[in-house]
Amino acid sequence: RSPGRQKAASESSAQRYYHARVISQELLEILACPKCHTKVQLRDDKLRCPSCKVLYPIVDGIPVMLIEEGKPEEESEEG
User: Fold this and answer.
1) Got the DSSP string for 8-77?
2) Residue 68 φ then ψ, to 5°
């Protein structure tokens, strides 16, 4: 049992999931803004609600569709 070998295996699997930022078209079609229930759009690495003008983050390929995690579009573009 080599500790180095186990570490390398865990690093490679963590890297694989970290870079997975793609959201399937099927998932994108069913996602809606949690605040107004409008269909969201993919914009760079975030999901945008065209009605509320709010951007929701995508963390490790998983959309974070919580009202409190959404950032107003203007605020997000400045920072």
Assistant:
1) HHHHHHHHHHHT-----HHHHHH-B-TTT-PBPEEETTEEEETTTTEEEEEETTEE---GGG-EEHHHHH
2) -70, -15
- pLDDT bin (cut points 50, 70, 90) of residue 18 is very low
Q: Is the model's pLDDT at 74 over the cut of 50?
A: yes
Report the alpha-carbon distance of residue 67 to residue 52 in Å, rounded. 11
Rg (CA), the chain: 16
Q: Rounded CA gap, 47 and 69, in Å? A: 11
Compute the distance between CA of residue 75 and CA of residue 79 in angstroms, rounded to an integer: 7
* Paired tokens of 59: 């963390």
pLDDT at 37: 97
